[in-house]
Amino acid sequence: MRKQRKIDGRNGGIVPLSGLLMVVLVTAVVFASELGRIGIIQSELQRAADAGALAGCWELAAKFNKNQTATQAMTSSRAAAKNVVSQNVVRKIVPALDSNTGNLSSGDIVFGKFLSFGNPSAAIQPVTTNEANAVSVCVHMDNVRNGARELGLAKLLGFSTFGTKAKATAAWMREIRGFKTPSVATQTLPILPFAIRKSEWDKMLAGQGTDTWAWNPTTKSLSAGSDGILEINMFPANTTAGNFGTVDVGSPNNSTNDLKRQISSGVSASDLAYLGGKFELGSNGTISLNGDTGISAGMKDELSQIIGKPRVVTLFTSVSGNGNNAYYTITKFVGIRILEVKLTGNPKRIMVQPAIVTVNSVIPSTTDTSDQVYSPVVLVN
Amino acid sequence: MKTNNFISVRNLVAAIVGTACFVCSAGAVAAQQASSVTRVEEDWEMEVISASDDLTAPQIVMEMSPDNSQSGNYFTFEINHSTLPEFSNGGVQVHAWINDESHDFQNSPTSRTLERVRETIRWTQVLEVQDGSVDFSVRPFASTSIGHFHNDLLLSVSMPTSQSDLSSYSPQHSIDKTTVPYAQNRVRTLKLKNVRFYSGSNQVENRQVNFDVLGQ
User: Fold this and answer.
1) Is this prediction's ipTM beyond 0.85?
2) Crossing angle of helices A14-65/A70-87, nearest 10°?
3) Which of A11, A25, A278, B74 is a plausible cystine mate for B69, CB 3.0–4.6 Å?
């Protein structure tokens, strides 16, 4: 007779194992649940910080564009950042920002200079002047501000709250040393094929010039009068004939039609192809362009079409050669707006004033190689 | 002695009176001469070293004014382009401006552009007052690429005036206002060679100037 195996003694073995597995499973579920929740909160906080930094930075740039003081611009920028952050609700909490009027580097809203584009770990250098080109926003959800979050099931494990924060920095390039071919082939660069003698531009910045036109940045309209921004007549008269020029941005054999196209539509990828795909100052800080002194009266229609629109022109320090071998030594890019075009009678006039130009596809610089030619605002870290 | 003294004094008085009369007379003649200038001719010469028909370059703008443009009244002469009523390549065009507003203009019979050759262009700008009108003309104009315009192809415009003469005219105004607003690098020299003053049909002065407005 076969002896029957006695198995009754093992009946309770699965219970502790199941219990252990249940504990592990519940713990895992709790951790997963809380981690998911934390991840969502962190993600929403980051979204709020990104939006706040972008909004604050755009506002700062816009106010600088309207020639507001740094204090005015930063006040508006703080308000914009706060407003946008508050609209990015995090788990039913409306996040608030501290104004950080002292601009401490540890504050919620920090204004500063940022030059290390392409280096996501670079920090901004806090400044409260109009040199600022970056806004950093830190959104807390901890005991510092907005409150730490209550945990749910994690309480079972002895964890009751957690705190976190998210930080973002947005900036725009304020110094550029050139332009590269836009990523979209049909895009053009708003560069006019003209050059102004740098000493004339500097004189205007130093206070020599007229102020007979007023540009309204809100209505984007022009009227006779003063707007506090001096003007320069880019059309040469007898005594100023050597101070202005038309340059070949692209083919060295530009025709009148090429120049008209560039005035109306901008510099194209095929123009840049002649310059190796980039219109950039060299390592010595200059680029030489062929051209002719002065400006053709035949550009009247094209110039009239772009009155009020911001454009980039070049500054030169010297011109050499004559005939069809005149070469301009370009040292800087500046933003301008055309205010008036009168190309009949004598003297003729093309009145321009400094203006901020936002251009995609710029090449950043760490030296003084541009005035008021900026990149769009982007998140840098 | 007494008589001699009397004669001396009389001679002295006569000499003083004579001198005074001469001075007054000369002044009057000079004033009359200055005030009677009714026509002025300016001879110009331009040396073009490398024109570009692709770019309509260079572009030259001359100006003459009967009154130094005190009133905003002046004449312009555009070479290798024209700006009224719209911009056109090549040729030449004369304009009359009253208070900086266009009063009249006339085009050359051709609109040929300056060619890519060295050439020296010569022309004479004439300003003349007569019968309540001041006329501006270019005669002759001699360019191998643009063309030759003589009295039979007179480029002329006029405007009404209250001036009876050209005493307010100044060649310095013409020098100051002449410009090459586009492609001056393609022009070697632009010289005012001579200025002739006429009273009626009589030449009263021929002033040799030979001044290069480009200063090269």
Assistant:
1) no
2) 150
3) B74
pLDDT of residue B20: 44
Q: Could you tell me the two tokens for A270?
A: 């095929």
Q: Judge whether A193 is closer than 8 Å to chain B, CB to CB.
A: no
Give the pLDDT score at B25.
Answer: 39
**Residue pairs spanning A and B at CB distance below 8 A:** 103
Q: Please answer yes or no on whether B54 and A346 come within 8 Å at the CB atom.
A: no
Q: C-alpha angle with apex A348: A346 to A349, nearest 5 degrees?
A: 150
| E strand residue ranges, chain B | 39-48, 59-64, 74-82, 88-98, 101-107, 119-130, 133-143, 147-149, 155-160, 179-182, 187-199, 202-212
Closest A-chain CA to B94: A345
| Gap between the Cα atoms of B179 and A238, Å rounded | 5
- Spell A163-174 as b/e; 16+ CB within 10 A means b: ebbbbbbbbbbb
Q: What is the CA radius of gyration of chain B?
A: 23
Express each pLDDT in A265-275 by its tens digit.
Answer: 999 999 999 99
- A3: CB partners within 8 A, 6+ apart: none
Q: What is the pLDDT of residues A97-156, one digit of tens each?
A: 999 999 999 999 999 999 888 888 888 999 999 899 999 999 999 999 999 988 777 777
A365 in helix, strand or coil?
Answer: coil
Pairing of strands B59-64, B74-82: antiparallel
Q: Please check whether residue A326 is in contact with residue A292, taking contact to mean a CB–CB distance below 8 angstroms.
A: yes
Cβ pair B99, B111 in contact under 8 A: no
CB-based contact, A318 to chain B, within 8 Å: no
User: What pLDDT does B26 receive?
Assistant: 38
Q: Please tell me the predicted confidence (pLDDT) of residue B150.
A: 76
Lowest mean pLDDT among A304-318, B14-28, B152-166: B14-28
Measure Cα distances from A358 to A112, B21, B183 in Å: 19, 77, 31
- How many Å is the maximal CA-CA distance in chain B? 91
pLDDT attached to residue A160: 83
Residue B2: predicted pLDDT: 39
Is B181 in contact with A235 (Cβ distance < 8 A)? yes
Distance between CA atoms of B197 and B202, rounded to whole angstroms? 9
Which residues does residue B189 pair with via DSSP β-bridges, in sequence order?
A: B47
Q: Which of B50, B185, B54, B181 is nearest to A326 (CA)?
A: B185
User: What does R_g of chain A's alpha carbons equal in angstroms?
Assistant: 30
Question: What pLDDT score was predicted for residue B97?
Answer: 95
* Whether pLDDT at A179 is above 70: yes
Long-range contacts of B211-216 (CB under 8 A, 24+ apart): B211/B175, B213/A238, B213/B175, B213/B178, B213/B179, B214/B180, B214/B184, B214/B187, B214/B188, B214/B189, B214/B190, B216/B188, B216/B189
Token pair in block for residue A47? 């979204």
Whether A347 contacts chain B with CB within 8 A: yes
